[in-house]
Amino acid sequence: MRNTSKATTLENKFPLLAVEEDCIISKDADITVGFRVELPELFTLTSPEYDAIHASWLKAIKTLPAYSIVCKQDWFIEESYKPDAGNEDMSFLSRSFERHFNERPYLNHTCYLYLTKTSKERAKSQSNFTALTRGFIVPKEIQDKETVGKFLEAVDQFERIVNDSGFIRLQRMTTTEIAGDGNTPGIVEKYFALSGDTTCLQDFSLGAGEMKIGDNYLCLHTLSDTDDLPGQVFTDTRYERLSTDRSDCRLSFAAPIGVLLSCNHLVSQYIFIDDHRENLKRFERQAKNMHSLSRYSRSNQINKIWIEQYLNEAHSLGLTSVRSHVNVMAWTDNREELRRIKNDVGNQLALMECKPRHNTIDTPTLFWAGIPGNQGDFPAEESFYTFAQQALCFFIGETNYKTSPSPFGIKMVDRLSGKPLHVDISDLPMKKGIITNRNKFILGPSGSGKSFFTNHLVRQYYEQGAHVLLVDTGNSYEGLCKLIHQKTKGEDGIYFTYTEQNPIAFNPFYTDDNVFDIEKRESIKTLILTLWKRDNEPPRRSEEVALSNAVSLYIEKLKAYPHLRASFNTFYEFTGSEYREILKGKNVREKDFDIDNFLNVLEPYYSGGEYDYLLNSEKQLDLLSKRFIVFELDNIKDHKILFPIVTIIIMETFINKMRFLRISLFFNQLSIRKTTIGNGLETSETL
User: Fold this and answer.
1) Which of 100-104, 434-438, 493-497, 678-682 has the least mean pLDDT?
2) How far apart are CA 509 and CA 605, in angstroms?
3) 189-220 b/e with 16+ CB inside 10 Å = b?
4) Which one of 110, 446, 534, 623 is at 20 to 30 Å from 20 when CA atoms are compared?
């Protein structure tokens, strides 16, 4: 009985012969070299940088010999976020953050590039001569070792040119990555399964009206005719949703069918490099034929004009004639959802000003030609003639956000999908030369989430070992500080605030190691000058020298008498007694340094004065060892005396930490206004 079944095995129709020396060999003797492509993250490039990437691709393509094929495949697979909540050292808030995003869907983007050397006859083959409908014949020219050697040299040069651009990185795929092994699927298996991590092949149903792989229904949109193309193409376009009148957010021209298309899809971009001279000769003959037939049809006359314009640009501008093709293959296991996906793909193509064409005839043929290593089986009638510059504009130029390899950073989310990412906004940008300092400025209107984000930021910095010093107005960090205080059993999480019952008090003369370096001395002098002089009363040089001598001699006395308690009270007493006698011995005139005026002005801060608590704290708190400190200044931000003093103490604490530790200083609720602190020194109030 005759077998009339149309079913066949994949082995009978499989177009690939072997993978040798990291090259894919087809049964038609086409040679393909595969690369994994690392693209820059979206929203990170400017228009000149997109132009530079485009120029690198163009320069690289010109190195390939005739009858080569460049195929770039961008895979966008829907996956679910898996939280990292198994770490026992993870804090409650970090674990809650991870659980909040559990199974959050996102698109995982991987990009591959295939460079194929085929023959002249294979380059002209059409869909009725595909490997699905015929046997395999080895072309004569592919048997030439010199041809193969020149192609592999051109591939190496192609890789160097693209990598030297600094924006894109090509990494050559190994035999294991192509063919897989017992544990890991190769790129060929992934292609047949339409999955990124499966090794289980499924049944194919190839039909003219519908194609199905396993439970997934496929739909295909193609750009295979000049009538489907926009009037103009560009290397990049303006992304209006994130652009303003003053800022310009750029994406590649093909971005609408890339990361902006939220469904499972595969974008394949082909460039066929034929013999450039033969192409132009053939167009010359077509132009002559159209000229001779122009009297019979106006369309022939128009075609003649278009062909001549194409030839003129090719000759005058030195452009390379190529063929190109772009297709978007999307899939889903739900028939109802397939209709929505078709509309989404069509809408995204329309954003590129392309004419969406849902191809229901050539889906099996184009799917088969997209097999890694089988690009030579592409049907020629599905391509259109253009120049290499224009064809490269259809290359997707960016990928989604990536997790930073740096161990230090914060958790943020992808602005498109909401997937959590570990981002280093301090160390890695410094190493790459993107920034020259680690300063940050969080700007936004009231209620936009500045304090919420800063809580999130400082908590993660603290958990990674950084020292955090916060200056706050509004009690935005009291809760986090109390949480750290409770968790460390009072060892950390220090919260300073001013109340009449418990006012802020310091001891500017206290050091844990009894070392008074130049910065400590200058801090003390600045503080005393602030208390002594008014804003509009700059100190004279003689007064600065006298004060500097007083501080230095007092410090020497502290070192000579270790049991003497360092405080503003003892400094005041030293100045009024011992230092007064020293000035008399030097015959320092009153107009040069009026010590009585000095002591009179500072008397409110001495024992029994109005502010005697401020600089004579009994708590010898070593802030150097505390990793989370909050200064709440809401009650004194408008106080003319307390605010400048507290500001100086805060800066001293920060500078002291900065010398030895990794420290982050945060000012919350900023309202910029100019202030000079008593002595006329260069200080500013930004609270």
Assistant:
1) 678-682
2) 14
3) bbbbbbbeeeeeeeebebeeeebbbbebbbbb
4) 110
Cα dihedral sign, 397-400-405-408: positive
**Nearest-angstrom CA–CA distance, 1 and 588:** 127
What is residue 211's three-state secondary structure? strand
* Tens digit of each residue's pLDDT (9 = 90 or more) over 366-378: 999 999 999 988 9
How would residue 39 be classed by pLDDT, with cut points 50, 70 and 90? very high
Could you tell me if 72 and 108 are in contact, meaning their C-beta atoms sit under 8 angstroms apart? Answer: no
Say if strands 494-497 and 628-632 run parallel, antiparallel, or are unpaired.
Answer: parallel
Round to whole Å and give the CA distance between 84 and 421: 12
CB count in 10 Å sphere of residue 321:
22
Helices (H) and strands (E) in the chain, counts: 21, 20
477 with 669: CB under 8 angstroms? no
Q: How far apart are CA 605 and CA 527, in angstroms?
A: 12
Torsion of CA 357, 358, 361, 365, to 10 degrees: 90
**Tokens (6 digits) for 600:** 């009179």
**Tokens 């674990």, located at residue:** 95
Backbone angles phi, psi at 187, to 5 degrees: -65, -30
Q: Which of 164, 277, 265, 281 is nearest to 217 (CA)?
A: 265
Query: Which tokens sit at 322?
Result: 């190529």
The span from the CA of 78 to the CA of 74, in Å, is 13
- With a CB cutoff of 8 Å and minimum separation 6, the contacts of 269 are 71, 72, 73, 74, 254, 324, 325, 326, 394, 395, 396
- Strand-pair partners of 251: 237
**Contact status, residue 110 vs residue 34, Cβ threshold 8 Å:** no
pLDDT digit string, tens, across residues 42-81: 999 999 999 999 999 999 999 999 999 999 999 999 999 9
Which helix or strand (DSSP H or E) is residue 268 part of? strand 265-273
How far is the C-alpha of 532 from the C-alpha of 602, rounded, in Å? 6
- Determine the 3-state secondary structure of 321 from DSSP: strand
**How many other CB atoms sit within 10 Å of the CB of residue 645?**
23
pLDDT in tens, 329-372: 999 999 889 999 999 999 999 999 999 899 888 888 899 999 99
Angle between helices 298-317 and 276-293 (to 10 degrees): 150
Residues 498 and 506: beta-carbon distance below 8 Å: no
Nearby residues of 318 by Cβ (< 8 Å), 6 or more positions away: none
93 touches 85 (CB < 8 A): no
| CB neighbour list of residue 41: distance below 8 Å, 6 or more residues apart | 398, 399, 400, 401, 402
The CA radius of gyration of the chain, in Å to the nearest whole number, is 37
Closest CA to 565 of 521, 511, 645: 511
pTM equals 0.79
Residue among 608, 583, 609 at smallest CA distance from 595: 583
- The band of 326, judged by pLDDT with boundaries at 50, 70 and 90, is very high
SS3 566: coil
Q: Which residues of 504-542 are buried (b: 16+ CB within 10 A; e: fewer)?
A: bbbbbbbbeeeebeeebeebbbbbbbbbbbeeeeebeee
